[in-house]
Amino acid sequence: MNRAERVLSVMKGGKADCVPAGFWFHYRPDYSVQEMVDAHIKLYRETGMDIIKIMQDYAYPISGEITCAEDWYKISIKGTDSEEFDKMVSVIKGIRKEAGDDVLLFQTMFGPFKAACMAFGDETLMKYSKEAPEAVKAGVQIIADGLEKWAKGYLEAGADGIYYSAQFGEIGRFEQEEWANLVRPSDLQILNVAEKMPGKYNILHICGEPEYNFRTHVDWFKDYPADLVNWSVKDNGYGLEKGRETFGKAILGGMNNKGNVLNGPVEAITEEVNAILDGFGTKGIMIGADCTIQGQNIRLDYIKAAVEAAHNYKV
C-alpha cells in the first residue's frame, strides 16, 4: 500500500498494511508560499508520515469593525478571486507537485465562528453572542458563505479533503441550544462541501480553547460528517474507545501533543504508541496527537519515532 491507500483503508473501515500516523505544528504566518511548501515537505519526508495536513497559518481576509450589534450585518470576507486565496492555492499546488499523488493532502480550515473570533476577538464575539445572537449569526453567515467557496476552491485545486477545526463547543461557553443555533449550522455548511464532492474527505478536529482549559463537549459533534475524528483525549478524559462508540468512525489521535512526542525520549514515545494500540487495536485508527504539537524545540526525530512505532506495530 502507498500512503494514500493506507489512510483511505483506515477511513473506510478496512485493514491497512500497517497503522498510519500523522502529526503537525504551526508555521510562521509571514512565510512565503515557497517557505510554506518547503516546511510541509520537510516534515513529510523526514518523518515518513502518511498524510499531509496543510496548515492555515495565514489569516482569513475578513473586514469590518464591531462597535454595535448592527455592525455584524456589515462585515465581509474576500472571495476566491483574492490574493489571499491565491496564496493558499499556490501552497496546495506546490505541495502536491513535490509530494506526488500517493499521499492525501488535507487543507486545514477554521470554522466561520472561529474565523469571526480571529477577526474581532473572543471577548467581542462572546459579548454579542449573548446580547445579540441573531446579529452574530448573520455576520457568521456572511463568513460561512465566503468560506464555503474557499473550501470548494481548495478541493478543486488538488486538496483531497478538509481538516476542519470545530471549536466553540467548550464547556462553559454556550448551552447546547445556543451552540446548535449559532455555531453548528456554519460548521455543517463547510463540512458538507467535501461531503458532497466525490472522492473528497473530511477530518473533524474537535478543538478546545485555552481559556476554557481545552475542555469541550465532544459528543455535541457526534453526527458531523467526517471520515476521521480527532479530539484531545488528555484534556477531556474522553478515551479513544468511547469516541469510537460515539462517532462510529475511524479515529485519529491518542497521543499527548505536549508530552512525549514533544519532549522525548524515543523509548517513551514508542511505549506510548504501543500502549494506545494495545488498548484500541489496529483497525480504524491513525496515530496522531490531541492537537497540533505545541511547545518549544519541536523535533522531527521525535515525530519520526512516533510514526515508526505505529508502522512497526504488528497489525
Automatic annotation (TrEMBL):
Alphabetical list of InterPro entries matching this protein: Methanogen_methyltrans, UROD/MetE-like_sf, Uroporphyrinogen_deCOase
PANTHER family: METHYLCOBAMIDE:COM METHYLTRANSFERASE MTBA (PTHR47099)
Domain Uroporphyrinogen decarboxylase (URO-D): 66-313
Coiled coil regions in record: none
Name of the protein described by the UniProt record: Uroporphyrinogen decarboxylase (URO-D) domain-containing protein
GO BP terms: porphyrin-containing compound biosynthetic process
GO molecular function, one term: uroporphyrinogen decarboxylase activity
Pfam family, one: URO-D
